[in-house]
Specification:
With 152 residues, this protein is mostly beta strands. It is built from 2 helices and 10 strands. It is 10% helix and 52% strand. The strands form 2 sheets. Strands 1, 2, 3, 4 and 10 form a 5-stranded antiparallel beta sheet that branches. A 5-stranded antiparallel beta sheet has the order 5-9-8-7-6. A hairpin with a 6-residue loop joins strand 1 and strand 2.
Amino acid sequence: MENLDAINKYGSVFLTNIYEPNDNGLILEVKKAKISDFEVDVMVGDKILSGCKEITIDEFGTYFTISFRNYVSYQVINESYANSNPTDEYVSGDYRTFCIFQKSRYMDFILDQTFANDVYPGELIHYGLFAQNHVVHVISIHEPIIEIKQSW
């Protein structure tokens, strides 16, 4: 898949846009995270954490779009509540920004709750985007197109 290594070498990202450009098509836009140069104190409960740096979206420069021609299912989870599963297996062998799953509980769920399977509509593949603000799971029979874009 073109640009898969590029997005995974990019570092931390934010999901900045998600939309369906056509019926059952999906586009994910991700931009690089940047760390502030300034330290601040943050109150968490009754504790103060000193020396924290804000992580924000880098609005300028290179970003990526991940386009799925169509999908069987997708799920968006607030990153703060996402749970990793030790039984999930990745094609790449490890967790990355954008990955392909070899085995996952989400795929098991889709196979159980839908009539989609490896015969109809075809071989299903589970893709995952792990961003600073969201985790997105996509089940599709089509490999996505990852494009490198530029914003000014």
